[in-house]
């Protein structure tokens, strides 16, 4: 009941990693104890375990269930049979709070006629949770991540999956920055919240009119992005008072590449800002000294015809593929931007610093799966990558409009999961969790520009361990 699937995004597939292992284990043990009671069940024991469940998920998820538990305070043996189900409900609530809430999918069937389609030609999709109360005129648009496909062969392999077709997409759970609990997402909980599904493999930049009849692949990422935004404008975003464009991984890169366009499409009087989560990919050499990521991005841009949709402020100065690197785009950006990134970003360590092609003998495999398994020599190289990452961040400048939360965790994407966004044990910098830092920056309560000390100094990190 209490083990759960991580709603956060990975690059090639959904992650099956679980979060909050401590609370999961405690709740699971509690359930085992409850099931072992059998005929020895009593109201007293039921209450004991019920309140144990309550304390666990109130601590971890910062929710208050006082009113719910008032019904359990009645000292009456006749209620024993009714208390057991309530304990189960309690545990179920813990799991539901952790998972967030499922949001149905909207298919933009009408966008197909405009050429806005996934790799396989199916319509684009997004998930929409309407705002309420004071947030009815505020909009948070989040772009899903999922890596890139670099060639026709690569995109064909992706076409018949949820990364290339809306036919394989399912409802998603909203949590973290998309959560609707005031306790766990105080600054954005009641906003209109949208998650744009990722099915084009180009960070929503592709634009090739011709379709090869042999492959039947469509490279239309930019059209997808515009079609969704126009649909949201028609549904009320044209009256937005506050708007935040965010994204994770490839979606985090998209939030940078499309930031100024998004700003220009919103009402003139609206406060519009952008958040890039794990999207600040840097131009760095791999462990062999090869510029592999530069060649990789060049393939993406050429395959998808992305050049025309990259910021002209960059492409007027550099070759288009270089404008896939945020460090060359952000200096000319006009819209306020917040960079949320791990200095030891797991995707970048695995794919920019030590890609498989640069490590044929797989000597880096253990290190890439778990940073604690890095040898001393490998850790020195990883620390050097951190230095390169921080140098690339200099492009942000010193303006208070540019916020940053750069921690020393081995992680990738931290805004979409409650345990890393805002929880009792979430990552912090100067004792401030990510959710509060982003909220303070957006509402101009305080500027937030913090860079963590080098690994392994930060005890608040939730370092990722991969299978």
TrEMBL record:
Per UniProt, the keywords (alphabetical) are: Cell wall, Cell wall biogenesis/degradation, Hydrolase, Membrane, Secreted, Transmembrane, Transmembrane helix
EC number(s) per UniProt?
3.1.1.-
Q: Which Pfam families match?
A: PAE (PF03283)
Kindly indicate whether the keyword Metal-binding belongs to this entry: no
List locations, semicolon-separated: Secreted, Cell wall
> Domain of life of the organism in this record?
Eukaryota
Transmembrane intervals: 79-98
The yes or no answer to whether the keyword Hydrolase is present is yes
Q: Name one GO biological process term.
A: cell wall organization
Q: List the GO molecular function terms.
A: hydrolase activity
Task: Indicate the enzyme's highest-level EC class.
Answer: hydrolase
Q: What's the stated role of this polypeptide?
A: Hydrolyzes acetyl esters in homogalacturonan regions of pectin. In type I primary cell wall, galacturonic acid residues of pectin can be acetylated at the O-2 and O-3 positions. Decreasing the degree of acetylation of pectin gels in vitro alters their physical properties.
Q: Report the family membership.
A: Belongs to the pectinacetylesterase family.
Name of the protein in its database record: Pectin acetylesterase
Species per Swiss-Prot/TrEMBL record: Musa troglodytarum
The root-end lineage is: Eukaryota, Viridiplantae, Streptophyta, Embryophyta, Tracheophyta
